[in-house]
Design goal:
By secondary structure, the protein is mainly alpha-helical. 58% of the residues lie in helices and 0% in strands. It has two domains: 40 residues; 95 residues, Cytochrome c-like domain (Cytochrome Bc1 Complex, Chain D, domain 2, Orthogonal Bundle), CATH 1.10.760.10. Bound molecules: heme C. The site of heme C has 25 residues, from α4, α5 and α7. It comes from Hymenobacter aerilatus. Keywords: Heme, Iron, Membrane, Metal-binding, Transmembrane, Transmembrane helix. GO terms for molecular function: electron transfer activity; heme binding; metal ion binding. This is Cytochrome c.
């Protein structure tokens, strides 16, 4: 037997083995004999339902009278306070976010109407703040108690509070 004919016989033999392994694998995977299984796999693959993600934002819910107070406070704040105050940054005066946690509404009303009177009365918080801000006098405002409460309502909404104090 020549070398060339031995190589030829080996090649043919390997081809036969490869075919046999391929057939075993196909039938083991169910591809040749169990078409029902393939159908089930397809149904599973296409049956994935993507659930829509809720886009609902967490915004404060306001009653109509609260919206009116907020709108009035918005205009008053922009017309009288915004040149010196912001919610989260010191401008000329302190950031006003969280003011209702630092002081009562009653104090805020007195302060806005006449801060020098509050300081002169020896109010510890007021004196400290005044000194902290380089003894810069905040102007007195001829605003009613209700108008100042509207400004407070505006600040509370602006700072992200979910409710507006109502008295
Ligand atoms: C010309 C600048 C100026 C204007 C206008 C002004 N403020 Fe002030 N405000 C200050 C300064 C300065 C302070 C810090 C205390 C001080 O120096 O007397 C202050 C302090 C305050 C405080 C206390 C803050 C805290 O952290 O306790 C409140 C409340 C306040 N102002 C509200 C108002 C409101 C409401 C208005 C508008 C009606 C207003 N301010 C307008 C300058 C101003």
């Amino acid at each position: 037997m020549s070398q060339a004919s031995i190589r030829g016989a080996l090649t043919v033999g390997m081809g036969v083995v490869a075919c046999a392994i391929g057939a075993v694998c196909l039938s083991a995977g169910g591809l040749l004999h169990e078409p029902e299984e393939i159908e089930m796999v397809e149904v599973g693959g296409c049956g994935v339902v993507s659930t829509p993600v809720s886009q609902e934002a967490e915004l404060p819910v306001l009653a109509p009278e609260e919206i009116a107070r907020f709108a009035a406070g918005d205009a008053l704040f922009k017309g009288n306070c915004a040149q010196c105050h912001a919610m989260n940054d010191v401008v000329v005066g302190p950031a006003l976010a969280g003011i209702t946690k630092r002081q009562s509404e009653k104090w805020i009303v007195k302060w806005v109407q006449n801060s020098s009177k509050v300081i002169a009365s020896g109010d510890v918080y007021g004196v400290k703040l005044y000194e902290q801000y380089g003894k810069q006098q905040m102007p007195s405002f001829r605003l009613s108690e209700q108008q100042i409460k509207n400004i407070v309502a505006y600040i509370e909404v602006q700072q992200g509070a979910s409710r507006v104090a109502y008295n």
